[in-house]
Design a protein that fits this description.
Strands 1-2-3-4 form a 4-stranded antiparallel sheet, with helices on one face. The two termini are 18 Å apart. It has one domain. It has 2 helices and 4 strands, in the order ββββαα. It is α+β, with helices and mostly antiparallel strands and 71 residues long.
Length: 71
């Protein structure tokens, strides 16, 4: 797991792990969810990977687009 940069300072995301067709996200609450191409869709997962690497916007994106689409 890689620590999320959290450039805004208010994100609920703590850490993430990027795989070829998924991203696993650990939230500040301690909960961990895996979002894959199968459930969340390729475009959403790729957007989440980009946001995670950039350290900004991941929590908002999850809540807006894939909140319950985890594996």
């Amino acid at each position: 797991m890689e620590r999320y940069t959290n450039r805004s300072g208010g994100s609920g995301v703590y850490a993430y792990e990027i795989g070829s067709d998924y991203i696993t996200v650990t939230f500040s609450s301690g909960s961990t969810y895996k979002y894959s191409y199968i459930k969340a869709g390729q475009s959403h997962v790729e957007n989440m990977k980009r946001l995670a690497s950039g350290g900004s916007g991941l929590n908002t994106y999850i809540n807006s687009h894939v909140k319950f689409k985890y594996d």
